[in-house]
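Incident log, structure service

09:12 report received: a user says their structure output differs between two submissions of the same chain.
09:20 pulled the input from the user's history:
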Amino acid sequence: IDKDALDAQVKERKIQEAAEKAQHERFAHDMKKNDKLMCLLEERQKNEIKDMNRALIEFHKNFQKPETRREFDLNDPQALKKDRPARVSDDDPRCTISGMQKFMGEDLNYDQRMKFQKEQLREWSLQQQKDWKNALADQKLADDLYDKFRIELDRKLMEEQRKEEESRRVVCTATKTFNRIQAAEQDHKNELEKAQKIKDDMDEITCLLRGDFLSENPDQAIGPLGKHHVLVDRWKGMNQEQLMEIRQFQKEQALEKLRVKEQERRRDVEWDRQRLQAARAQLLWERHQQRQNQVQRRELDVVNAELSQEQKAKNIYLKEEEYSNIPTDEYYAQFNTTTR
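09:34 re-ran on a clean worker, output below:
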């Protein structure tokens, strides 16, 4: 058993396993990093969607109230409770001209109306200013939160990159040390193999010089199974008797080959003759078939000519005899002359 080769295979296997393990760890680290980034991005997207939905709800609540719609008076659930009688007083603005309760041009409620309109405009202006300030405050708060989130995300990314670079540096250092040790072991192993090879070559040269191969001993070619079993690497050639046997066997093979070729030639000639006979019979059958088709065609032409003459005679008879009496107006006038 070659213990050095087995040890070298074990070391190579360990090196390969260490490299595969490092590669798997690197892939796992990359997967964890990508998963963390995806989680952070998903969380950021969820927060942005939540903020947008919150801002949309606030906008609907502040600027699109149901009371501000033009058709709210038609859909107001408290319409009956808010409704007033047909007339409250003489100053009721709902009094129409047809009711003759109030006439155009009097404008008895001018002062109250103007005061109410100014108060209403002031309230609207204050409400709009308040809503605008609230919207600005909410936007500023959202921007601050987003900036904080971005800063925290950037800090986490920088921390992950720093850890990754540190781990990569440690792996590179360990790999260099391992490669240096392996190079030293490989150099020592090569020196040992070189010395062993030189020793083996010297032993082989000594064995060849003292062996039967260079001394050309004919008995060295006899194998362990008998005289008919020859060792090829030690065989020095055949004698005259063996050469005569081989030449006789080659002559017999040549005669057998000539006999086989003659049989093949005769078989090919027979096949060619049968093929020519079949082709000649096919040609005769086709000519006979063509002659029959020509006879049938002539008979069919004669029948078609006779039918054509009969059809022409029938058409002449119908035109001159059957359809010669053309109806007149008197013929049609005799119909529908009674109630029946």
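09:41 both user submissions now match this output. Likely a transient worker issue. Closing.
09:42 reviewer note: Residues 258 and 264 are 10 Å apart (CA to CA). The chain is about 75% helix and 0% strand.
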